[in-house]
Amino acid sequence: MFELRRVSAGYGGHVVLRDVTLKVPPGSVVALLGANGAGKTTLLRVASGLVRPFAGQLLLDDRDVTGLRPHRLVEAGVCHVPEGRGVFPSLTVRDNLRMHCLAGREEEMIAKAIDIFPSLGRRIGALAGTMSGGEQQMLALARAYIQNPRLALLDEVSMGLAPVVVDEIFRFLEILAKEGASLLLVEQYVTRALAIADYVYLLNRGEVRFVGEPDELEGSDIFKEYVGVEIG
Ligand SMILES: Nc1ncnc2c1ncn2[C@@H]1O[C@H](COP(=O)(O)OP(=O)(O)OP(=O)(O)O)[C@@H](O)[C@H]1O
After folding, report:
1. How many A from CA of 211 to the centre of ligand 1?
2. CA of 103 to the centre of ligand 1 (A)
3. Which ligand 1 atom lies nearest to the CA of residue 42?
4. Measured from the CB, is residue 41 less than 6 Å from ligand 1?
5. pLDDT tens sequence for the chain (232 residues)
6. 91-119 burial code (b ≥16 CB/10 A, e <16)
7. How is the chain split into domains, by residue range?
8. Are 173 and 154 in contact (CB under 8 A)?
9. 207 C-alpha vs ligand 1 centroid, how far in Å?
10. What number does the ligand 1 atom closest to the CA of 203 have?
11. 76, β-bridge pairs
12. Atom number of ligand 1 nearest to Cα 45
């Protein structure tokens, strides 16, 4: 179980998250929804150790991991696929993948990446920056996948991509979850996120306004109230 317990966080003196409690049970998919600026990206940054909370705790299997450096959280199985992907454009696909491989297991782990996204195999020697947005996103996801994450933090991973690529990415997310990873998913395609989610959190101005199962949200006006549009 991964948990943010009563977390407040932000940047400098600017408070973005206020007293946020959020739980990601083992093997579950949690969708984190909210309007632009609600604090979703900040919450993922807190979860991966990039932003240190002002108050509150991060717990991983009841162990207090608050204040651990990001690489320690990676070692504990927390993988962050950030907004903007974070791939290195001037490195090849192979070298982007190699940076996330364990010593001595490079070939096996790269094969695993190609197996899940065959198009990466066809571009293995290409510079990442020369690939399409969809291929770069697949590379970012493959880097997380080959590390066998226990918790994947996924920030708008389908943003700006063609529908056929979005389909492939959602198929991948289902495989990732079936293989046992927990997912914390920030996603603009709300209906698609709800279709694979076990639980939903709705964030508004840095506070949690709703926690429940997707069915409960679909039947209520609360999404429209805080996000300003109907679910769709
Ligand atoms: N590095 C930063 N320094 C200062 N303020 C920031 C920084 N990043 C985000 N903010 C502010 O924090 C607030 C929440 O931003 P955040 O990106 O977490 O929201 P979000 O829900 O992910 O929004 P979006 O859907 O637009 O990405 C906003 O007011 C934003 O301007």
Report:
1. 21
2. 36
3. 18
4. yes
5. 999 999 999 999 899 999 999 999 999 999 999 988 999 999 999 999 999 999 999 999 989 999 999 999 999 999 999 987 789 999 999 999 999 888 888 999 999 999 999 999 999 999 999 999 999 999 999 999 999 999 999 999 999 999 999 999 999 999 999 999 999 999 988 889 999 999 999 999 999 999 999 998 877 787 777 777 776 6
6. ebbbebbeebbeeeeeeebbebbbebbeb
7. 1-77+151-232, 85-148
8. yes
9. 14
10. 21
11. none
12. 18
Tokens of 62: 């009841």
Q: Does residue 84 have its Cβ closer than 6 Å to ligand 1?
A: no
pTM above 0.80, yes or no: yes
- Give the type of residue at 218: E
> Mutation test of ligand 1: which of 15, 16, 22 has the most ligand atoms closer than 8 Å to its C-beta?
16
Could you identify the residue written with the tokens 């240190």?
A: 52
Distance from the alpha carbon of residue 38 to the mean position of ligand 1, in angstroms = 7
Tokens at 18, concatenated: 């206020």
Instruction: Determine the topology of domain 1-77+151-232 in CATH.
Output: Rossmann fold (3.40.50)
